[in-house]
Predict the structure of Monooxygenase.
Amino acid sequence: MSIVPDASPAFIPHHEIVIVGAGFSGIGTAIALIRAGFDDLLLVDDAAGPGGTWHWNTYPGVAVDIPSFSYQFSFAQRSGWSRSYAPGRELRDYAEQIVDEYGLEPKMRFDTRVHEASFDEATSLWTIATSTGEITARWLIHAGGPLSQPKLPDIEGIDSFTDDTMHTSRWDHEVSTAGKRVGIIGTGATAVQVIPEIAADTAHLTVFQRTPIWCLPKPDFPLGRVGRAGLAAIPGMRQAARLASQAFVEATFPVLAHFHRWIPGTDALEVAARSYIRSQVSDPATRGKLTPAYALGCKRPSFHNSYLSTFNRPNVALETTSIEAITPTGIRTTDGTEHPLDVLILATGFKVTDKDALPTYRLTTADGTDLADHWESERFRSYQGVATAGFPNFFTVFGPYGYNGASFFTLVENSAAHIVRVLDEARRRDAITAEVTTTAQDAYMESILARGPLQVFSNPTCASANSYYFTKNGDVPFRASTTLEAAWHSRRFPLSDYAFSN
Ligand code: NA7
């Protein structure tokens, strides 16, 4: 359905709505829009299929680290997950099934990279330059996701290694690590999953760690045929599992992180985490190196039941001396040691708040203001992570200060509800532009930032965590809010927070 039924032909865009990204952000937003009657939409993605992060990340051991009962859409809950924390392949299948179920395929254009988007004031349309041609749209939604741009380490000689090398998010399944001398740089959530999976088969595995990660036990268990049948057949069982899972996720991230000062006994968690490390790692020196010096929560903790104990293996070494260079034959550390390697794995994460990551293309308003420059000079600001004052007809599913750290699916559903609410109102008014007011954005930012002192991120030890939660300015652009509160505001904000024009 078009929002402007009598628009002049010159002003009729190719599509009413273009969504950049066909991962779960784009898929969930598209479904919410279609349900609200906005059918004329197109999703573009540079991948060859849907699923976003779950399309790209196929490394050994890839799995969710939020329980699957929560890591799914509320309107498309499954009983068929093989484990309480589903493997990545099942998430990729889930994305493909949802695309089928909701008939999204004809609305998707793959292998299409967006290069630039510019808003034209005369027509109130976006022109989106892509690798497969130009598209115009009334409304542009960036659903790119925060973990889509692989970050290569800035280490001398990165291109010089002559044997096999790969970033974890572009795993080359032709390369075998079995019987080889393997090096892996990074000890974030991805490395925590890869290392135990490949260690046993390698001739030798050297883990190059810069900053240790808090690794906690994962309540990961197979659901089995009986469990899955129970979830599907017993009335209320799936809902009960979801409720318990949501409560667990809420307590372990949004509440603990954003209301840290109010929660008694958080020190006890760190004590328990240390004791877990002691129970898992036999060598005291290795154990010491694997124990973080920053507060639990400064950076995303990992959950795995065999990561820490993998360092007990005789063929696994933890190297904490800094890397000086990558050489044609391996890695040289600053103590002069050469580490010869056959395979080099870069588990070095993603560009999350880097200037060229959000969004990944140049996006300009009618007066030429570039969004990335705007955020660079003004620091990140937004309204509920969805809209930015000065950028009409543009929405982000994951924008700054929008995500509270709970299941990503909750964020997607909240952001989609917010966007639908604005577009519904635009349709009611026959409006062709909608833009959040500066007053509304300022009030939102003030309310979120006021909670900063309560957050774990204000702990001084976070300075040594190298956490991607922090921007280069030291800001942590999370939505300091419980999930219920975020859901409420996404659906109940005053419509006067937006300015509409015909
Ligand atoms: P992360 O969590 O960003 O981890 C990247 C890791 O790579 C981390 O240990 C970094 O060390 C390390 N790294 C990055 N650059 C270098 C250089 N130059 N030298 C040495 N080590 C380096 O990415 P992941 O892919 O593991 O996880 C991303 C998210 O995916 C995760 O949070 C989950 O939500 C799912 P550092 O800690 O910066 O010292």
